[in-house]
Amino acid sequence: MFKKIVFIAVAFFISKQSGAQNDQEVQSSEVENQIQDQVITDDLIVQGSIAVGTGSTNGENFGFDTMRFKEDNLRIHFDDTSTSASFPSNDWRITINDSGNGGSNYFSIDDATATTVPFKLEAGSGNNAIYVKSGGNVGLGTSNPALQLQVTDGNTPGLRLEQNGSNGWTPQTWDLAGNEANFFIRDVTNGSKLPLRIKPGAPTNTLFLAASGSVGIEKNNPDSNASLQLGSTSKGFLMNKLNTSQATTLAGNLGTGHEGMLIYNTDLKGYYSWTGSEWKALAFVESGANSVPELLNYQSVVRAANGNVLANQAVNFKMDIHQGSSTGTLVYSESHNVTTSSLGMVNFKIGSGSVLSGTFSAVDWGAGNHYLKVHIDVTGGDTFTEMGTTQFVSVPYALRAKYAENMVSTAAASSKEKDMKNKISKLEAEVKQLKSLVENLLKK
Hints:
By secondary structure, the chain is an alpha+beta fold. The chain has four helices and 27 strands. A five-stranded antiparallel beta sheet has the order 25-23-22-26-27, with no helix packed on it. The protein has a four-stranded antiparallel beta sheet with strand order 3-4-5-6, with no helix packed on it. Keywords: Coiled coil, Signal.
């Protein structure tokens, strides 16, 4: 028994002695020329290097290697022999390269129990392909990750999100990437379109999505009562610009659920709103730099008796302004010879036509209600047919202010006249009435 213990000590407690580096070959002394398993029931301490595998040779040059595996099929298997249900027992394996001809070169960690490969590193991956820094930050392509995950590359670093269809969902692939031109999201599946792009140097809060769902453009914390709030004080809002043909095409896709959609018609030079069945022109008071011009936009669609639009046809409009009621005093009348668009639309300015009676600038908008009566001759002549009457509500208020302004000028020019006091009194009354009209408008 003592001799066997000595044999084990000699065979497996191997030390590198001063001046001696001879490899130790362990062989069985009981059976000559026959390889047998060596069973060691005590600790095995090797104070030199170890070479394992059929490729190991006597006189192996280890260099700085403590352990070397040499074989044409390299595997290290971790077999957990736990049998109790309360203890983990999964088996693992380290695999080096495929075993077949033409296979891949790689290092992998295999789940031997589940027969899966959760980690695989191919040969030639390059420096710092995966780098975990001391603080836990992970670098892909860098040894100095600044955040929890940093991706570094010389040309357009990015991440790919791929739904491969393995669970039955439609395959879809997205890329998130950035370079010197822009940061972008790319829809790889649908022709590599770029639905979102951000240029370098874009200002802070270019796009701000609030918790309320409100969107701010160059505006942080947009008003929660507004779907969209613009914050710039040096820019304007540019409406979608469509020509008449494009507006017609768009109309073919619209219905009753699209009321309120706005566009700017570049042919008709005006803003239009979708009513649910057609484009309706929006009327605005023309504005100047320092004063209120005496013009009103008028836009309409001309139709025949059967309801069809009259496209590209010369027509003549007569515009009458009545005071007091729709049949009250005619204070102004003019005509407009115009040609309809391909949509049957017309666009002109009341106050700039051929005057038939009265003076547009002399209309006293503060003297009671005013009504616009529209007549048309669809042949372009002067045999007019009445189309209808509309009461002016808020549009001429600016002209009302202009009327008060004219009275001030008149009073100043007539300062030497005996009736100055009467004119000033009338002016004060006009200003008071104007103030009342504005207050009523603001209440609506």
